[in-house]
Amino acid sequence: MSKWLFGALALALLSTGCVFDFDDDDSFSIGCINANGSYVSRSLSLPPFSGISQETSVEVFIRQGEEQEVIVEGKEDAIDQLELDVDNGVWDIEFDRCVRDLGTMQIYITLPELRSIRSSGSGDIVGENTFETGDLDIHQSGSGDVRLTALMDDLDVRISGSGDLLIEGVADEAYYRLSGSGDVRAYGLECRTAEVNISGSGGTEVRVEEWLRVRISGSGDVRYMGNPELDVDITGSGDLIDEN
Asked: Where is the Putative auto-transporter adhesin head GIN domain (predicted)?
């Protein structure tokens, strides 16, 4: 690369506020660090939160308990870059800067209450015991999967990415809106009523007792167990399938 072209590129990028780290081989990265250091286990102190927003490739394990606790296992340099801010009761799991060579990292979270899960990264979120809560919102726009068992009043699920949701337990009412390719596997979740709206290719498996409303404008199928009253409108190529 000519000095003129390199200088022009650097000037253009600097005008956007980017930060450079120059290596010995004259290559550069924009705002990134290499995660070094040994693998450690560290306890993090955060303000109280009842929601999780996963924006990374890190695996997150959650459980319900009396006292909030967050333990991270991974490279020291990577742990140092974790954001510790809680906004409106939600911890955004993300890094201050981009981290290369992250390696294996796990976050273990104990919460007195769980109200929301948002997953926009590639890391999975796994429940390790049964949560008892009121209303629970789960929004997935990334490729990471969510696996959870919960006893709740209302469940609100939105999937616009490719990550799957596997959920078990009990809910009074459940709402599923799928516009991506991710699937919902909820045969293990007993619901009184459920509404399913599919505009993407993702499919849904539900168990419903009294009433099931289905709207399909995409290619995803709805498979159901139980004997609910049905309210169905299908304009796409997906089907409603009785699995009893």
From this structure: 48-228
- Domain ranges in the chain with CATH number 2.160.20.120: 114-244
Q: Is the pLDDT of residue 208 over 50?
A: yes
Give residue 30's pLDDT band: very low, low, confident or very high (50, 70, 90): low
CATH class of 114-244: mainly beta
Q: What pTM did the predictor assign?
A: 0.85
Tokens 């290719």 belong to which residue? 201
pLDDT digits (tens, 9 = 90+) for 48-58: 999 999 999 99
